[in-house]
Amino acid sequence: MISTSTTRVLAAELPLRIGDRVTVQGWLHRGRPLKSVVFLVLRDRSGLAQAVFTEPEAMAAASGHPEETVLSVTGTVTANPQAPGGVELTSPEVVALSGPAEAPPFDLYRPGVPATLPTVLDHAPVTLRHPLLRAPHVISAASVAGFRAALDGLGFTEIHTPKVVASATESGANVFAIDWFGTPSYLAQSPQFFKQAMVGVFERVYETGPVFRAEPHDTARHLAQYTSLDAELGFVGDHRDVMAVLREVLAGMTETVARQAGQECALLDVTLPEVPERIPEIHFSRAQELIAAGTGEDPRGEPDLAPAHERWLSEWALREHGSEFLFVTGYPMVKRPFYTHPEPGRPEYSNSFDLLFRGLELVTGGQRLHRYEDYLAALAARGESARPYEGYLSAFRHGMPPHGGFALGLERWTARLTGADNIRRATLFPRDLHRLTP
Amino acid sequence: MISTSTTRVLAAELPLRIGDRVTVQGWLHRGRPLKSVVFLVLRDRSGLAQAVFTEPEAMAAASGHPEETVLSVTGTVTANPQAPGGVELTSPEVVALSGPAEAPPFDLYRPGVPATLPTVLDHAPVTLRHPLLRAPHVISAASVAGFRAALDGLGFTEIHTPKVVASATESGANVFAIDWFGTPSYLAQSPQFFKQAMVGVFERVYETGPVFRAEPHDTARHLAQYTSLDAELGFVGDHRDVMAVLREVLAGMTETVARQAGQECALLDVTLPEVPERIPEIHFSRAQELIAAGTGEDPRGEPDLAPAHERWLSEWALREHGSEFLFVTGYPMVKRPFYTHPEPGRPEYSNSFDLLFRGLELVTGGQRLHRYEDYLAALAARGESARPYEGYLSAFRHGMPPHGGFALGLERWTARLTGADNIRRATLFPRDLHRLTP
């Protein structure tokens, strides 16, 4: 059993302990010294608890602590409909465990956050204590738990793969260089090679880990390090089997957020999406026709969707199918990586997909090539030498099943879900073109 | 629901389907073409399945596939006590999904592994398919699941922190340098700063992610990238509250391995340790006395334990307490990082611990300083300037509770548990002084 030196009770547990004398520990969220009474509101990981000091000696002991002082308060749990949670601590005694050396950049007890994003990020260790700024990260943790639980239930195995690689697999640009004991190497842009190779060992694998993109631009939706939720599975018919697994994953993530982060969703006014039994899908070529007919702009001939057209398609899916999710399938091969499986019968298109969620591309995935000779042909067709890919290709020299997978950016998901104006609000300590601290 | 193009059945499910005509898909583990019968043994993620071909036409179709060919076999499930799992597929039809371009470096179907470790690692995408080489990684995945489940149950929040930092927190040496958009930076040696800072936000946090040590030596127990299972919690009395949480974590890991990887433990002849309700503990100073009395060598005055003495202490704990785990507490401050909390009343010792498991240090942890002024004093006492630690210290300027935590090396745990002679056998794609591929 876990023993702690004091038998501490969490704020959220107080309503069950009316009449008991208990100890609550947390940060002084707000102190209100009045003439004949002092109110202290403590904040712990479960919520807020109020203590009421009325005896002159106790009032003196309770006064003078700046907000964010770490306090231990022992008192009698007493019902009071006006107090947070309907209870408060009376006849309390207070001990300061440690005091702040400095005030936060803004008052953490106020309902809003009167600070710019750079201020929030510069002072993350203290600003993230604000309930509004903390909440996305609780939702994020629940989302990852849901991702893993869904895949565990489908027979997937978790893997941990190298973040330092001898050559870039996704593309030569946008990589961070490392000096590896004197050998030039790179931070991994994705676990693509490793997860595909491990289909040969475990059939179904996932990884939840950092990936690195040396994006030289500064936007509200790009990070130089983000958490990639990757999955890959063998013995698929085509990309639709991958999409079916992704549907289960999204349902698992949403359900776990509802169960584990309901309080945070309420605080941020988050409406969780319904994940349809079958997420609507539309082929890329058909999507372009719809966009042309619906917007008056004609994107046909373009090999990718413009952000504005992704938003338009999302609205279309909501209108026509009542779904906040939409699969766009069959992206032109020319815009997909060399390992992408072409569409049988229409080799200019691919067995790939993007998942749009509330107007934004959230997931990219698809079926991959699985035959060694197909890889050689694909590289030759692109005029690329197979030599730099030798390590990558080795996995396919030994018999690989038809397979596919997807990658979901955790911070992008959380930002979209919580309606954040910037992906950095869904990242504890963002790393980007300009930010390497704290 | 998940639909696949064929309704595939796993090898392990066959005993429940006797009499049914089903499709099994997997790798040709072993083909045995005899004069009047051909046996094919398929391997999938659940185990092995045998198909028996007796009709001349079917025998011809089943012959000539090299091992590791990916096959789809449809047949009738028939009881046969001699076959793997007590069943086999009869009247089978076979389709090759993809063939190997090359034979594996050794036969994967033989019970043993007749290859050196470098061969195994050089060809990881195919050698890890061998059941003996695959098993540690299934045990590893179950271990991480157990780690998370134990901490989830204790109110911890999962975090994802930067792997690129502007300055080294653990020590100036052994860091990998990165060019971050022109700014010198480093791969993170641990999430130490971030997890401590997040105690101020979530109270109890964990992370399961990669850490990087530019260890310039090549040993059987060091890697340059490994998976660190990190936890940190606030409102502790002292390091013993951290040890109590670690005990729960070890119990959770062991139970989950037993439940999810029982087959792999049996294959590797792993005996899971019992985690005592209370893991025995011994103070560093007392441990040195015991070692002096027991071995004839006198380590007193040394600030750390030699590996041989760790082994001796482990044997002592097994002999005296019947435990394969032993906490050594109170390591001298001089060998612990600056953020370590000293032992009250004996400030030359610390409120820290190592956990020994089967003769090896597996976990390091302890109570940390939590007051800003104590950090300043600790750095001054070491003759270090506070300036390089400004970012680190910022978290402690705003009120931090007494807290502590620990870090457990996943690969070291798995290697020790499985009796591996080298930590690389518990790592899918090791990274070290000499190895950057595959």
Structural descriptors:
homodimer, 438 residues, OB fold (Dihydrolipoamide Acetyltransferase, E2P), BirA Bifunctional Protein, domain 2, eight-stranded mixed beta sheet, five-stranded mixed β-barrel, 12 helices, 18 strands, disordered N terminus
Strand elements of chain A, count? 18
What are the segments of chain A in which pLDDT stays under 50 over at least 5 consecutive residues?
Answer: 1-5
Number of helical segments with 4 or more residues of chain A: 12
CATH superfamily of the largest domain in chain A: Bira Bifunctional Protein, Domain 2
Pfam families (chains A, B): tRNA-synt_2, tRNA_anti-codon
Subcellular location (chains A, B): Cytoplasm
Site (Important for tRNA non-discrimination) (chains A, B): 84
Subunit structure (chains A, B): Homodimer.
Please give a structural write-up.
The structure is a homodimer of 438-residue chains. With 438 residues, chain A is of the alpha+beta class. Chain A folds into two domains: 88 residues, Nucleic acid-binding proteins (OB fold (Dihydrolipoamide Acetyltransferase, E2P), Beta Barrel), CATH 2.40.50; 301 residues, Bira Bifunctional Protein, Domain 2 (BirA Bifunctional Protein, domain 2, 2-Layer Sandwich). The first copy, chain A, contains twelve helices and 18 strands. The first copy, chain A, is elongated, with a radius of gyration of 26 Å. The two termini of chain A are 36 Å apart. The N terminus of chain A is likely disordered. Chains A and B meet through β1, α3, α4, β6 and β7 of A and β1, α3, α4, β6 and β7 of B.
